[in-house]
């Protein structure tokens, strides 16, 4: 009987212990049976996700999953009803919890990445530009004896062999886009069997393969292009941080700084919850294992029953704690989310910085560098815990990630921490501390919190912008500020997205309604075509009619020099400032950059526009052993003096061995490496000047800086400088990893005339001016030297009006190409001047002009018309009138209103620069005031084009979003429908009666047109297949899609038309231009191929050939050799419509415009441009062939003809030269940079 009672008691205890589990197990069994029925579809979805989703962004993954689910359901595959997430069948909560404890960010994208990595059969290849995935991988694989190697390191193969044999894990970090061939067998797992063992071949060695071996590949490249075999043999996983994920991580940083009690409690709650989840899973597994492993009658197994009871008790206790912890976490989250706006602003700022590399390759920023700056901004924000404390402890992303790997506190301690935080007494529990803990301040009141949040938003935004601005070229500062301002306003819903797109794209109506006679008096067709599309926007419907009704008021407003500061006529003056920007861009495109600057200043504050003066000490104080300083070099600027001066203030000089300056060049690799190694161990400062000259050695510098960041002496500092390549903003001069982690300094010298004159004259001294042997020679030396300095300043300042080549939509009004005139040219010319004066009794003006213009400055120049401009300046400046006539001052005007000074003392001439130099304007450079308007218009177009590229271009790692793809598809369909059929060349050539020069040109043009049309058709059809998924998207297809999306001419099409770097037309305008060219060719090649009465010269691919054909035709008719032929151009009074028959001699051409001057129909000669008229049209021009002996430039200006205002092709910028009648001296038009343009991109 006692035995029966014991048995009954034990049975009762067992039933009690398993009672709640019985119901749950029954439900689980039922669920498993249901899952079995849908296993096929669920597993297919999960396998597709693991195999294919890795490389893509979170948005694109969501689209893929939705497409796959829809496809599987359409095919009738059995699937779990309502399934939306493949992770539910790939991983459980305990698995995710364990990853989070190992340091994986807990955002959904990171969890997806972890799931793919764990479940993939192929080796994972992590695309991890922010280094978030690699931290988790290192922590996770540490238990597998992880070995970290680098591609190309001397010991990589040895470490790999040992790890393969021992079955350890290997991580190849920071890979490029190429993989060492010796590793291919390992990556492809090309094993073979010998006896009972597996082997893999590495080079010439056979290595025994342990099945526990695991390989992980890692790259910091955000959008790498690997060959297909690598993509097939590895699983690419995109660990690029998402904006939502980064927002959560920055929220932890902000709260950690502002309310460390809250963040510590939150972290401990995360740790507790993950530990509870893992423990519950372990208990459940142990329970099932004990029951399944029990032998005999389990009702008599007292130890088993007691173990089950203990497990059940612990599980129930944990379940209660989980509920309590989750409730507490909700309360904590509510307090933390009060700071979310600051974290959201931080995430937006980082993604803005991350997109700036589309502007220039130097603009690279790592997440760690950003977090350091962002954390410093929180510390210095007014009203905070560390306000004004620049020495607050820095916070890194790695530290934030590692917080969740800390040891858990007891549950009671965490709950007490949470209670104290919630009631506003956030003291940290520290029972073991002997010293009393100071009472921290209580939580802020709602009013205090509101003020603090505003301060945090303002300070964080400004500090990050200022950090970025220091490394920007001057031309890009307004672009970045505009991007920042608009992004903030868009996020706050303060501006309308449709209006924002209209401002950026500024589309012109292809066929606007006819302009009224009243408006046509002051408004151009271009302005009207830009104004009319605005009427389709909400609230702008009456704009065109209002302008017509108040024509005089709008005319007065448009006639103002600074219209953007004046009130707009009528009710439009009451519109929001942003909406007024749209009208300014349409009617006054030359003032849009000023208007944008004023707008940004009104929104963001004056400190965003007015930059503080460069202070080397402040910037160098921010450097550390892991943060080098990168100085961008400019002509006339070197940072070495600043570095030496600041280093001396810190007791670091070359003499005491604590500072080393190395001018990099051939043979300097060894000394540079020796100094880096020495200072890494002992501490010291090193400056490596001109590292761009050492492209083969820079990777070694990259590796040494990476080592220094981890192991260097705390006093180690590295500074280096490099010069950008003019016209090649995407040139990879400095490795991406160095650029991401360094502080970039762009101390660009001012380009105005007074600043240039100060620097130029300061290159000489009183002693150098007194060197000549006689008083007369000293007078001549000082007079000509002043003119030489003025000449040098003119050449430097003229660049700001555009340097054509490689400047996108920029102007070539200054020079056709960029030249690096420098102080060395000036000082050398000064020495030449001294030598020539000493060697001659009279001043040899011709010799001096030749030496200055053709040898020293001319040595830089590659374009003939740039050379003509420079030598013309010398002819105007270096002449006898620059010298005083006895006691009388010089009569020569160096610029209007600025006479050459009396060559008295050096100090007096310096003072003359400060007091007498006229205000900065194009007139000083010999140009028309419209040149500034042209410059501003060009800058505005470039600005908005860059804004579109940076904010509207497709992202990497997965393709564009749905909206962009829809735009590309619709545009693609439109272009394909309008694309004409190529010419039938067999049929055209069959109609040729005689192959005259004109006929040859027509045939050549038709062949070129066919090549373009066929390439356009092929590439568009290929892109269509790529968008439909029938073809893999190649790099060319991506660039074509991006060009269509941003309305920019794709390089693939542009290469078929010209040798320019970039078309100045938008894609829609360029496409219309191509159709118009086709129409002219179609009419020309019809019938018996008769040359049009008046040829539209801009419509030809090779206008040079046509102009040559004019001379060839005349030479054949008169039996003359071609080499004695030239042509002159006579500008007629006629219009295209009035020409009904061919020219008697030569040919009529039309479609041209002038830049820098206008054609006066009444007097039939060149005249100065009218205000605000940039590209006035030329009437019909007659090209008249003449022989060399008949050709004369007397009374004519030899005017260069360019394709467009860029004035720059890669090979030959000039199309031809025309002769234009002038009553003024040709010098005037040379210095004004007057040219004929085939394309008017401002129309």
From TrEMBL:
UniProt keyword list: ATP-binding, Cell projection, Cilium, Cilium biogenesis/degradation, Coiled coil, Cytoplasm, Cytoskeleton, Dynein, Flagellum, Microtubule, Motor protein, Nucleotide-binding, Repeat
Residues covered by the Dynein heavy chain coiled coil stalk domain: 9-69
Major localization class: cytoplasm
Pfam families: AAA_9, AAA_lid_11, Dynein_C, Dynein_heavy, MT
Span of domain Dynein heavy chain ATP-binding dynein motor region: 98-318
Recorded coiled-coil stretches: 266-335
TM stretches of this protein: none
GO BP, sorted A to Z: cell projection organization; microtubule-based movement
Residue ranges annotated for the Dynein heavy chain region D6 P-loop domain, each copy included: 625-745
Protein name: Dynein heavy chain
Superkingdom assignment: Eukaryota
GO cellular component, one term: dynein complex
Location in the cell: Cytoplasm, Cytoskeleton, Flagellum axoneme
Single GO term (MF): dynein light intermediate chain binding
Residue ranges annotated for the Dynein heavy chain C-terminal domain, each copy included: 938-1238
Ranges where the Dynein heavy chain AAA lid domain occurs: 781-931
